[in-house]
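Lab notebook: predicted structure, single chain.

Context: the supervisor wants predicted structures on file for every construct in the current expression panel, including those that have not yet been purified. This is the next one on the list. No modifications to the sequence; it matches the entry in the shared construct table.
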Amino acid sequence: MKDVFEKDHIVRIKDFTRDELTTVFDLAEEMIPIAEGKKKNNDLEGKLLANLFFEPSTRTRLSFEGAMKRMAGRCIGFAEPGTSSAKKGETLADTIRVAAGYADIIVLRHPHEGAAQLAANFSEVPIINAGDGAGRHPTQTLLDLFTIKREMDSISGNHIGIAGDLKYGRTVHSLTNALSMYDTKLTFISPPSLRMPEEIIDELKDKGIHHTEVEEIDEVLEELDILYMTRIQRERFPSEEDYENVARSYHLENDMLRDRDVNEDLTIMHPLPRVDEINADVDMTPHAKYFQQAANGVPVRMALLKLLMEA
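Prediction complete. Output recorded below exactly as produced.
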């Protein structure tokens, strides 16, 4: 494994090669029965993870804790910046230096873009970026790709629609970067004010990746293999008025799926949390895979922790 995965930190999905992604996915597959509690594993016994969450989180924080504990490791950290010395004015660099003296690996979520890279510059132990502002969320992308691979048998060969807040949504930025490594067709669905950032579109053009941009889900729903829904990122908007202008742009209901000739294997994904962009009546359809997607976060993060510790 070390020959194919030699990383000091996980900051950007762009830093991965196809071979490294395959290494993560193959190991994550092996970790599933351990993640489900069907087998025991002591690979990280005696190791300590520091979860430093300067921003709210449920799935990411709990899945990292679950991943560590499923491999007999332990966790320390905080879930609110108000309970840390940041409230007293301590710099992020100093917080990282201190935590690196306590733990074997650090998982960091921070509201400022670039925080994970700064942390990596100051840390003597591996840093895993658990989301930095509107920037990147590489471990979410890894579990997204793993979900696509398991549900569709392959990442390549799929027409993937990504809908919602494409301007501020860090999950879709990282996901688009990763999908550009595969043979996929991408359709971006958003209001004009929330389009995918121009620099990401330019990168796709440079790589020759086929992509289109539309404003309504209905325009492409029947063509898609995967529909990746996202919420409108209220906390990223400069004002409440700007948010309200686009807050209810998309709302997916079972009637939309039933009334249209959608692919019978259509997979609907969402990084969660959702607000009102997917109606609860979609949950019971065979298309809904977002809760399984969230569960996949544990074996994927188990694989990452093991690989980083070994590397």
